[in-house]
TrEMBL record:
<feature type="modified residue" description="4-aspartylphosphate">
    <location>
        <position position="53"/>
    </location>
</feature>
<dbReference type="InterPro" id="IPR007492">
    <property type="entry name" value="LytTR_DNA-bd_dom"/>
</dbReference>
<feature type="domain" description="HTH LytTR-type">
    <location>
        <begin position="128"/>
        <end position="232"/>
    </location>
</feature>
<dbReference type="InterPro" id="IPR011006">
    <property type="entry name" value="CheY-like_superfamily"/>
</dbReference>
<comment type="function">
    <text>May play the central regulatory role in sporulation. It may be an element of the effector pathway responsible for the activation of sporulation genes in response to nutritional stress. Spo0A may act in concert with spo0H (a sigma factor) to control the expression of some genes that are critical to the sporulation process.</text>
</comment>
<dbReference type="InterPro" id="IPR046947">
    <property type="entry name" value="LytR-like"/>
</dbReference>
<dbReference type="Pfam" id="PF00072">
    <property type="entry name" value="Response_reg"/>
</dbReference>
<feature type="domain" description="Response regulatory">
    <location>
        <begin position="2"/>
        <end position="117"/>
    </location>
</feature>
<dbReference type="Pfam" id="PF04397">
    <property type="entry name" value="LytTR"/>
</dbReference>
<protein>
    <recommendedName>
        <fullName>Stage 0 sporulation protein A homolog</fullName>
    </recommendedName>
</protein>
<dbReference type="InterPro" id="IPR001789">
    <property type="entry name" value="Sig_transdc_resp-reg_receiver"/>
</dbReference>
<dbReference type="GO" id="GO:0000156">
    <property type="term" value="F:phosphorelay response regulator activity"/>
</dbReference>
<keyword id="KW-0597">Phosphoprotein</keyword>
<dbReference type="GO" id="GO:0003677">
    <property type="term" value="F:DNA binding"/>
</dbReference>
């Protein structure tokens, strides 16, 4: 889980960051103090969750920032943070995950994070849209073993076929649930299908899949992340 904290008060950002740093599922934490910084980070880093202050700079409402975020990244979860409870109705009209009224303690923050994790599971897609040739195909992600970048193409490996798309691994990763990880610069793998690993050298492993002879690559720096995810799955 990658999280963006948006608040113009340094102490609030520091408090939230300190709590989140102790959460195993939180991998990356970004910070912003202005609406423009927020939009730029969302655009460049695609966080899963945004903790967003409604009263940012006295000029731009966090509600408007949330509308902008959701317009081009509707899967992002937003948790509003504010000193004013009167915005709650407008906030939940945007289908946000939670609404924290300052001051709040770490226990309340953790409850909000539990809501985020629960909702993420509920929002897992049944199928993902992928452009195959001139058509858009809706693929059941549960049938996908891995994605492989070959030149300008990405090969989508299932048990029975290999599909080709000119989409990028970065774009595809944004469509996938957290049962997929970027295992290598050229591979995204479905961890639910992983059968085992064969060490290649000091840099990588060969990934084996259930009921298939197909293989992918995993860089050794991703080994711990894979083990942690498999343990929780």
């Amino acid at each position: 889980m990658n999280v963006l904290i948006v608040d113009d008060v340094d102490q609030i950002r520091k408090f939230i960051k300190t709590v989140l740093q102790n959460i195993e599922e939180v991998k990356e934490i970004y910070e912003a103090s202005t609406p423009m910084e927020c939009i730029n980070i969302v655009s460049s880093h695609s966080p899963d969750t945004v903790f967003l202050d409604i009263d940012l700079d006295g000029k731009t409402s966090g509600l408007d920032v949330a509308r902008t975020i959701l317009a081009f990244s509707p899967a992002i979860q937003i948790v509003f943070i504010t000193a004013h409870s009167q915005y709650a109705h407008s906030a939940f009209d945007l289908d946000v995950t939670d609404y924290l009224v300052k001051p709040f303690d770490d226990e309340r923050l953790l409850r909000a994070l539990l809501k985020v994790k629960k909702r993420a599971k509920q929002k897992a897609p049944l199928k993902i849209p992928v452009k195959i040739g001139a058509n858009i195909s809706f693929l059941d992600y549960k049938n996908i073993l891995f994605f492989e970048k070959v030149g300008k193409k990405v090969l989508i490996h299932t048990y029975n076929e290999i599909l080709e798309t000119y989409d990028t691994l970065n774009n595809l990763s944004k469509l996938l649930p957290d049962t997929f990880i970027r295992a290598h610069q050229s591979y995204i793998i479905n961890i639910e299908k992983v059968r085992g690993l064969i060490p290649n050298n000091a840099v990588s492993y060969t990934v084996q899949f259930d009921q298939s002879e197909k293989t992918a690559l995993l860089v050794r720096s991703k080994y711990r992340e894979l083990c942690d995810l498999l343990y929780r799955t």
